[in-house]
Amino acid sequence: MRRMAALLYDGFLVAAIWMVLGFALQLFVGPESNQLVDGVVQTDPVLDAVLFALMILSSSSFYIWFWSRSGQTLGMIAWRIKVESLDGGRINLKQGLIRFFAAWPAFFLFGLGYLSLYLDANGDAIHDKMSQTKVVLLPKSHRPFD
What we know:
This protein is an alpha+beta fold. The chain has helices at residues 2-29, 45-69, 74-78, 93-108, 116-119, 126-131; strands spanning 34-37, 40-43, 81-85, 133-137. 58% of the residues lie in helices and 12% in strands.
């Protein structure tokens, strides 16, 4: 449940980043790129693709930057969990990319990728195994900003 709570916290941050990106893109291209046709907003498909790419880039950068620097996103700090490589060190870029892109299908397939948390002897999710990382619970005495 800690992982889901941390994901929810981080989801609010990523959603805010996406809103800023969408607003900035609209400022750049102007409102003429959208049309209202029969009560349905239609946007330029190229603009949609650009926005989607920016959303993937920004969210992956958010997670990988936090994971590789301290092992914790802001949501993970709040819930005292940390991601690290199997040897206990920081994760590298390759591990972060694998972890990020493997976690999305695990979540969006009705959370089936997270069922392995309960089936695995070490309590690892599928994206933990694929990226050779682990999530650890930190003690209550842990101070992230010291």
